[in-house]
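Morning, I've got a small favour to ask if you have a moment. It would help a lot if you went through both lines with me. Thanks so much in advance, here it is.

***
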Amino acid sequence: MPIFSGFQYCVDQCLQANANPDIQEQEKGYTPLTLAANQGHVKVMKMLIEAHCDVTLRMFDGRTALWYMAQQGHADMVIKWLPLYFLVIWPSA
């Protein structure tokens, strides 16, 4: 799976072919963004967000990509993407 491995070229090709950036796998509800966040693939995360993926989409257990960023110790990623997360939740704020 290109997202899991951080293959930017493959992810780019999928997005250019109009692949759904919010698709969820059926067992746990992973999304491309949660997988990229779990693995620390910052460039892939940026590509997905620029493709207008839903940054607030939750896995079946309630976890989000933001949770994975924090859990994996990627403070720089949390700081960078936290404002975007809140803009989606409260767009008029």
User: Anything to note?
Assistant: The two ends are 37 Å apart (CA to CA). The domain at 2-89 is CATH 1.25.40.20 (Serine Threonine Protein Phosphatase 5, Tetratricopeptide repeat). Helices lie at 2-5, 8-16, 32-39, 42-50, 65-71, 75-89.
